[in-house]
Design brief:
With 275 residues, this protein is an alpha+beta fold. The protein has a single domain, classed as Nucleoside Triphosphate Pyrophosphohydrolase (Alpha-Beta Complex), CATH 3.90.79.10. It has 9 helices and 12 strands. Strands 1, 2, 3, 4, 9, 10, 11 and 12 form an 8-stranded mixed β-sheet that branches. Strands 5-8-6-7 form a 4-stranded mixed β-sheet, covered by helices on one side. Strand 1 and strand 2 form a beta hairpin. It is globular and about 50 Å long. The mean pLDDT is 89.
């Protein structure tokens, strides 16, 4: 393949935030910790005024912003650490620029919605993210970009903290989304919070408890979230999840997989809502 074709494939178009079949690219993070009784995941209940999935239990996440793309035409840039962006792109099945944007979107949304930072400085990981609360608000209001925030504070996103986990392509309100799910361990010294305008409530829960709440009509779940909860139920510790992430099937699940037996319970169950 000649250099001209390489250049065409690698050209950055920061306005192209589309993924599979033209769906808008999005990223969401399953933030994990080992609780006193086993594996726990951070879950938020979306406010009733949200356009997509109001009142549903979700993981922190959102759409890719054009400013999540790298600032230069071929390199990961100075704001990236951990495994190379090329390795991440190959794992995810996207171009290296879209891999960069998805990882940055995941880290940015996690910080905006939970106050948790998957980033490092030259002296190590961030152990106290609360000191950056003011910049968090500026990010939420789009006053500054995530790259500006990182540059201003001498940080780099650590790709080793975000492991690709699943990929779902679905429709909401006539809009298609191509969503990549990542898993990650809560950094030592940090503690997430529910201080976001997008959630009425947030906290640590076992996946089993969330599913029991769904069956009882106390928790609203869309099928991609339900599927991740079901999968997490197989593990006892965060390390087991991280070990398994390297072999995760990242082929996109498209639409509502009603004919797939592993999702049969979701489509066969209509919980009586008690919320």
């Amino acid at each position: 393949m000649n250099n001209q074709i390489h250049d065409q494939l690698d050209a950055i178009d920061a306005s192209d935030t589309t993924g599979f079949n033209g769906g808008r690219m999005a990223a969401t993070v399953l933030l994990l910790r080992d609780g006193p009784d086993g594996l726990e995941v951070w879950v938020q209940e979306r406010v009733s005024t949200m356009r997509n999935y109001p009142g549903h239990a979700v993981f922190p996440g959102g759409g890719v912003d054009p400013r999540d793309f790298p600032p230069r035409s071929w390199d990961s840039g100075d704001l990236w650490a951990g495994k190379s962006v090329v390795a991440m792109a190959r794992r995810m099945g996207v171009t290296k620029y879209k891999a960069h944007a998805l990882v940055f979107a995941a880290a940015r949304e996690l910080f905006e919605e939970s106050g948790t930072l998957f980033a490092i400085r030259d002296d190590g990981t961030i152990s106290n993210a609360r000191r950056y609360h003011r910049e968090r608000r500026l990010l939420e209001s789009h006053t500054i970009s995530f790259t500006e925030f990182l540059s201003n504070n001498g940080m780099r996103v650590d790709a080793d903290m975000l492991l690709p986990w699943a990929r779902w392509v679905g429709q909401s309100k006539n809009h298609w989304f191509d969503t990549f799910f990542f898993v990650g361990l809560l950094p030592s010294g940090q503690e997430p919070d529910g201080d976001t305008h997008e959630a009425d409530d947030a906290g640590w829960f076992s996946p089993q408890l969330i599913l029991e709440g769904w069956r009882a009509g106390l928790v609203r779940l869309v099928v991609p979230t339900w599927a991740q909860m079901q999968r997490l139920c197989k593990y006892s510790t965060v390390q087991e999840v991280l070990d398994d992430a390297s072999s995760s099937d990242l082929r996109p699940v498209i639409g509502d997989p009603r004919d797939d037996p592993q999702y049969a319970e979701y489509f066969a169950t209509t919980p009586t809502e008690r919320i």
